Amino acid sequence: MPVVTRFGPAPTGYLHLGHVLNAMYVWDSARRDPGGTVLLRIEDHDRQRSRSIYEAAIVEDLDWLGFVADAPLVRQSERNAIYEDALESLRRLGLVYACECSRSDFEGHRYPGTCRDRHLREQPGLGLRVRLDDSVVRFDDLRLGTQTQQPFAQCGDVLVRDRDGNWTYQFAVTVDDWAQSVNLVIRGEDLLDSTGRQILLARLLGRTEPPAFLHHPLLMKSPTQKLSKSDGDTGIRDLRAKGWTAEQVISSLAHLRFAT
Hints:
The protein is built from eight helices and twelve strands. It is α/β, with parallel strands linked by helices. The relative contact order is 0.18.
């Protein structure tokens, strides 16, 4: 089948070089396939942090760099009904429960199951989690090879809607990738650990054949620290203001595309 992949920036800041590296992988992979398609998805599920000014700047910078999607952009903030339907399918399986915990209530990244059997009533101000079993998930990363993950041991039951009513990244992208027929997910290596739980979530929703995954190297500003928009690292807006051309931005990163 032709490649269908996606670029999914969050409009919580301006586009930076790390995003451009990801875009290079995404568009290059799609353009290598004669029928390849790139979708542009604005991942604005976090309503408190997303800003329309950032979305407009991201779209403008992508166009300036020559990254043109093959379909109109999609916003997660406009897909609430799709997420509600997916949640209801999990609810019918008896997998959804309300949770009043916040990150500060437990240590590390694994949710300890505090509210799993409390039978709290779903209401505003409470999050929603999905029960996971202890399944082992195996998949082949197109760059890193065979991977084995046990999502329940990694993270516990997955949060799908937070206490502010926002759909979570893990849930929204899993639903969207299936709904949009994405069959190749390309993203940074920092998201590798998310893969098993997304495959498992998709399986619970009814997706029997998961997408292929490719996790590329991260663009680092030091041996231990990746570029981050939250840290104000070099943004495309800044480079444009300094007189850089789109070709200079792309060529400055080109040698990293297939780094191992």
